[in-house]
Amino acid sequence: MKLITNIYQLLVTGEYDKPLCGKEMGAMPYIENAYLVIDEDCIYEYGIMDDLHPIAVDEVIDATGQIVLPMWCDSHTHLVFATTREDEFVDRIKGLSYQEIAAKGGGILNSARKLQAMSEDELYKDALERLSQCIKTGTGAIEIKTGYGLTVASELKMLRVIKRLSTAVDIPVKATLLAAHAIPERHKQNRAAYIDEIVNEMIPAFTKESLVDFIDIFCETGYFTVAEMDTIVNAGKAHGLKPKVHVNQFTSIGGIQKAIELEALTVDHLEELTEKDIDELKTSNTIPVALPGCSFFLNIPYTPARKIIDSGLSLAVATDYNPGSSPSSSMNFIVSQACINLKMTPAEAIVAATINGAFAMDVAKETGSITKGKKANLIITKPLPSYNAIPYHFGQHQIDEVIVNGEVL
Ligand code: NIG
Ligand code: FE
């Protein structure tokens, strides 16, 4: 057993059976002057210091002046990729758009060509290094998508890498099939053939091997249509996969309505969001997910988080870590971005990056809050004047120690 004493602020405490919505987010539950007991890999109990009774423990960590919070839950990443794309970054600085770069063979197809040429072992080695860095900087649960394979063999290679990552690290790792990320060159003249490959080959084979948790699609002008989302998501659902979908990144084409109808767990991006989209989200349990790193890097509008939260909806934030539109895995930076660019309060941003992120990838039973019985995946910050200082110091994480499964990293 381990005991953490004198915790200045212990954040996101209590029981959660659904993501926090609207005003609940700003009223993030927390307690001051707290203790927390860890038994093996789990949170055993916590409370205010005044209530701390004598307890036999192996180790005491004095957290005077420090803040303790659940590790970040990054519910949207493309962490398995071949190489970075800084040439495209320079092209964009010189004036080309993300779509123009894609149209001349860059973008997702560029990443796919490179990934197809790489061995599973090489991919795994690089991805494990990235994932270890995520954990060191406070990410305690992560979702990882395929989508740079675009062939049966290469999508399978990506899923195998994700499976190996999930057994190599001590945090929950969820796998999402995003074969519908771009139409590969070989099917440009016959997109139906690719949809058919996803539906009739990939989904049945990959789910049979239990390699996938979620089904995703990039529903966007120039990528996949709403009708294709219907086909692919229904095929995934028939094999037990919950939908988590990319919608409204550049255009609003009805993807949100379809995702709601398909009972998607999340709709991610939402940089282009209409009043009608918001009204429809209010009728559903689908969780909106904002990816401010992508808006920052591509210089596109930010998701209207204020409108979403003020409408009483829930919101999660995630990195979208990928080589094309968001090459950073820092949830610390995302929480700062949520405050600075999405106009969320620090409490709302922390909730969006912890418990709401956990719900956005179905790991809320295990992690995402300070709750008895959940995994002891914790961040201990440096001494800080208040939790507001966590996002305030943008680009400089305030982590002193990370505890993963009850062990100090
Ligand atoms: O979520 N929008 C689609 N997919 C990624 C970008 C992928 C890439 O450019 O490699 C995203 O932003
Ligand atoms: Fe993405």
TrEMBL record:
Catalytic activity annotation: 4-imidazolone-5-propanoate + H2O = N-formimidoyl-L-glutamate
Domain Amidohydrolase-related: start-end pairs: 67-408
Keyword DNA repair: no
Record-listed Fe(3+) binding positions: 76, 78, 246, 320
Positions that bind 4-imidazolone-5-propanoate: 85, 148, 181, 249, 325
Co-factor: note: Binds 1 zinc or iron ion per subunit.
Gene Ontology biological process: L-histidine catabolic process to glutamate and formamide; L-histidine catabolic process to glutamate and formate
Family: Belongs to the metallo-dependent hydrolases superfamily. HutI family.
Record-given protein name: Imidazolonepropionase
Native source organism of the sequence: Dokdonia donghaensis DSW-1
Gene giving rise to this polypeptide: hutI
